[in-house]
């Protein structure tokens, strides 16, 4: 907090913090109304805000220090913006397994996309499809639309393959799910999952 010029009088002003996108007490320690005193001749006084470190990857967050009730001075700019810069790396995201098998009458198969650590941001996971099975309501299977989202504070989400049980005698078929470039995360090791639909018809 800075005076525009040194004063021959004692100057006081109250200050307090206020939440922005950062919230107390999780992101920083709030300061209630406190009086700052400038003795004659002093022009600058610091206000220290204690930041609460965490391990979440999240967006930069802000708070303000607001000034009120000046004595022997007037306020020209009564709000100072503080920015807490995130310093945590993005988590990785991967499928928890690389393959699974299920008969046509299994109903459904589930693929789990999991983060290496909980994130403070939504993580979007796109994927593409290939394999010998045909996707579609009247075909071999249907699947959760791409992309799927792991919402902030959660560790995983699922992709569901709903298998259509037909009466055709046919070979086993595959659904290959390949992860694309995620948002707010980096790809882990297991980014391809192969689901094999085994035929159960005589």
Present the secondary structure layout.
Elements: E1 11-19, E2 34-38, E3 61-71, E4 79-84, E5 92-95, E6 99-103, E7 108-115, E8 123-125, E9 127-130, E10 141-143, E11 148-150, E12 156-163, E13 173-179, E14 186-187, E15 192-198
Strand content: 35-45%
Coarse morphology:
rod-shaped
N-to-C order of helices and strands: EEEEEEEEEEEEEEE
- Order of strands across the main sheet: 10-12-7-5-14
Polypeptide structure, described:
The chain is mainly beta and 202 residues long. It has strands at residues 11-19, 34-38, 61-71, 79-84, 92-95, 99-103, 108-115, 123-125, 127-130, 141-143, 148-150, 156-163, 173-179, 186-187, 192-198.
Task: Give the gist of this structure.
The chain is mainly β and 202 residues long. It has strands spanning 11-19, 34-38, 61-71, 79-84, 92-95, 99-103, 108-115, 123-125, 127-130, 141-143, 148-150, 156-163, 173-179, 186-187, 192-198.
